[in-house]
Amino acid sequence: MSAPSTPVAPGTPTSHPSPTSTPTSIPTPAGAPAAKAHATGTRLDWRLRFAVLSVIWGFSFLLIKVGTEAYAPFQVALGRVFFGALALLTVLLIRRESLPRGRRTWAHLTVAALLLNTAPFSLFAYAELSIPSSLAGICNATSPLWGMALSLVALSEDRPTRRRVAGLGLGFLGVLTVLGAWQGFSGLDAKGTALALLAALCYPIGWIYVRRTLASTPGSPVALTGAQLLVSTLQLAAVSALFTSAPTSFPLWPTLSVIALGALGTGMALQMQYGLVTEVGPTTAQMVTYFIPVIATTAGVLLLDEQLHWNTPVGAAVVLAGAALTQTRRR
After folding, report:
1. C-alpha distances in angstroms, 239 versus 53, 90, 244?
2. Burial of 101 (0-12, 13-18, 19+ CB in 10 A)
3. Treating both helix axes as pointing N-terminal to C-terminal, what angle do 133-140 and 292-304 enclose, rounded to 10 degrees?
4. Which of 19, 88, 168, 291 could form a disulfide with 226 if both were Cys (CB 3.0 to 4.6 A apart)?
5. Long-range interactions of 40-49: CB distance < 8 A, separation 24+
6. Cβ distance 39 to 57 under 8 Å?
């Protein structure tokens, strides 16, 4: 998701997402109808859908990079949430489902939209003005590490274990490897990298807020997520009107990139993830997180001619190993 990046899907406590909305486990929320857990004859095999989802979210960082070639970062983020909301609202229309009700629910969704969509999507877009899309994808993979660190103090049910603390330390060692700490971070844009890491930090903060405020909210994940993206669209429309000028042209490839980023990476991909969680469970479904930086790096090198040094894939592997350790729990 960027990863994906992932909008809210309230329910019982979830694991920390990764973006480019990052992916996360999405249980069925209170009041939602039970979904069929088995695949139908017309449904693609879950492994194929898993692969497609990994590719869509892995390519999100490339799409952001291409989008910023013609549009301001706020406008790229706006297009992303607008077309994502449009895709999910279309699904709701077909299903004849309504948006959530209640001022309290919408107030919490407004904060969730800011933390999980408006802020991180904008930060990643600004970051990719000065850093490669591959580095942005790797920074996105640090989200579980930030989540682990925050959960130790913010969520009483997430007790630290030796393995999870070791994963946290290993993950941040991988970050230092990616950034080339031993050579003084030379050749690295500090501001862009900091923005990407801050974007990754937004996701676990948002999910902690969601777990405390929206965990028992009735409604389907699609309805709640569609509402959240709708609120984020209004937020980014206001920000874009204040701080950017309306585009004078709409170049083909940047425009298509923004549309695909929203409709596919923020809309349809979430639908696909909901199906995977229902069919194979959250643990298997969230493994897509660990393929995103690999695909983001490959896409950046092959399609955007971004440079790749040895420390980038090595550090990314260490980051992912640490993130995997932080997600393990006692039996």
Report:
1. 30, 25, 8
2. exposed
3. 180
4. 88
5. 43/275, 46/275, 46/276, 46/279, 46/280, 49/272, 49/275, 49/276
6. no
Please return the burial class of 242, using the count of CB atoms within 10 Å of its CB with bins 0-12, 13-18 and 19+.
Answer: exposed
CA distance 89 to 97: 9
pLDDT in tens, 125-180: 999 999 999 899 889 888 888 887 887 776 555 566 778 778 878 888 888 887 77
For residue 243 the two structure tokens come to 């701080």
Q: How many angstroms separate the CA atoms of 236 and 223, rounded?
A: 20
The Cα–Cα gap between 254 and 62 comes to 11
Report which of residues 271 and 235 the model is more confident about: 235
Question: Global pTM?
Answer: 0.82
